[in-house]
């Protein structure tokens, strides 16, 4: 095998620096044979899959660990999936949302792993579900203890460092992650670097457009508060100056305390909330009960943790556009 012929001259210098020219040329062609001549990329869940497919295009074959319709938080891997991880050329994941996946990736021996949380700035929103309480009346302090229980549960479910993992729901942060994923694919497969660059630029352009649509679409609304099922929209709320009030915490399976439900009813009245949002992959029971008790409407706000036929759109961009329309309607956008 002539290594020089496999690697364009422009990238040869970079590859030599790694000291692994022959090795990486051979191993990537082995992997290429396995995945039909394409770079084998494993994505941990839908938002990562979307980035890999958009940027990788025809040069990659993407496998996703979280099957469509499966709620990704705390996903457990089948032993076979964990074993297959080792065959990936590149793994794209988001550390902190799926601890079992994080562990399997660490043990997989795959050199090209991209952790999305290292590509943007992480923030903590985990305790903001009850952040706004304590306004005015002393009576509200009685609720605080019950809230602490909820928060303790949230903290367990959040990543070890307490950061909110839902960065993909902010188009600006997602664009930063996209650039990092693009750079990782270029490094893993320098032969197609130009295409990865082109695709990254196109995707970042779409995300910029989405950001502008959200900024303009939510600039003037009659309320800034929205109620969601789980606290997935902290970054989105932060970006567009909205207040997220979540029924559950960071994890959609967490049950709210009766005190939290009562508090949400108060907030809904105070902030003239019209709608309680539920989502496609998690139980909508509490959202519908709360809406029924408070005389509010319900609608879907999709955290895009997976995509199915029931999703309001075929991909991330389309579902985010549906989310924008749902938010505009719920918030009374002018
Ligand atoms: Zn989530």
Automatic annotation (TrEMBL):
Which InterPro entries does the record match to this protein? Bact_metal-bind_prot9, ZnuA-like
Instruction: Identify the stretch annotated as signal peptide in this record.
Output: 1-31
Region (Disordered) residue spans: 126-167
Looking at the Swiss-Prot or TrEMBL record, what is one Pfam family this protein matches?
A: ZnuA
Write the record's keywords in alphabetical order, separated by commas: Signal, Transport
MF-aspect GO terms: metal ion binding
Task: Give the source's domain of life in one word.
Answer: Bacteria
The UniProt regions of compositional bias labelled Basic and acidic residues, in chain numbering, are 126-153
Q: Which Gene3D superfamilies match?
A: Nitrogenase molybdenum iron protein domain (3.40.50.1980)
Q: Which GO terms describe its biological process?
A: metal ion transport
**Record family assignment:** Belongs to the bacterial solute-binding protein 9 family.
Q: Which PANTHER family match?
A: HIGH-AFFINITY ZINC UPTAKE SYSTEM PROTEIN ZNUA (PTHR42953:SF3), HIGH-AFFINITY ZINC UPTAKE SYSTEM PROTEIN ZNUA-RELATED (PTHR42953)
Name of the protein in its database record:
Zinc ABC transporter substrate-binding protein
Q: From what organism does this protein derive?
A: Streptomyces corynorhini
């Amino acid at each position: 095998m002539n290594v020089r012929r496999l690697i364009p001259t422009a990238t040869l210098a970079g590859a030599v620096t790694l000291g692994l020219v022959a090795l990486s040329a051979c191993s990537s062609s082995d992997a290429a044979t396995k995945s039909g001549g394409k770079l084998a990329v494993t994505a941990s869940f839908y938002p990562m899959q979307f980035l890999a497919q958009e940027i990788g295009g025809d040069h990659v074959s993407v496998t996703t660990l979280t099957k469509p319709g499966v709620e990704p938080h705390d996903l457990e891997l089948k032993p076979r999936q964990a074993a297959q991880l080792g065959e990936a050329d590149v793994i794209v994941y988001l550390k902190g949302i799926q601890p079992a996946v994080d562990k399997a990736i660490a043990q997989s021996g795959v050199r090209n792993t991209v952790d999305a949380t290292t590509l943007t700035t992480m923030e903590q929103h985990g305790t903001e579900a009850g952040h706004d309480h304590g306004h005015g009346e002393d009576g509200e302090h009685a609720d605080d203890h019950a809230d602490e229980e909820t928060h303790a549960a949230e903290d367990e479910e959040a990543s070890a460092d307490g950061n909110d993992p839902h960065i993909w729901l902010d188009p600006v942060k997602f664009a930063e992650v996209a650039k990092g994923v693009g750079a990782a694919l270029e490094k893993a497969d320098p032969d197609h670097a130009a295409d990865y660059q082109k695709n990254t630029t196109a995707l970042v352009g779409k995300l910029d457009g989405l950001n502008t649509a959200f900024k303009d679409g939510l600039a003037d609304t009659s309320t800034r508060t929205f109620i969601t099922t789980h606290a997935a929209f902290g970054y989105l709320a932060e970006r567009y100056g909205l207040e997220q009030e979540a029924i559950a915490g960071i994890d959609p399976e967490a049950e709210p305390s009766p005190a939290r439900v009562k508090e949400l009813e108060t907030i809904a009245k105070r902030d003239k909330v019209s709608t309680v949002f539920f989502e496609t992959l998690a139980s909508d029971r509490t959202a519908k009960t709360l809406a029924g008790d408070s005389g509010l409407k319900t609608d879907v706000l999709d955290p895009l943790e997976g995509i199915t036929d029931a999703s309001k759109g075929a991909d991330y961009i389309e579902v985010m556009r549906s989310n924008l329309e749902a938010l505009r309607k719920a918030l009374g956008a002018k």
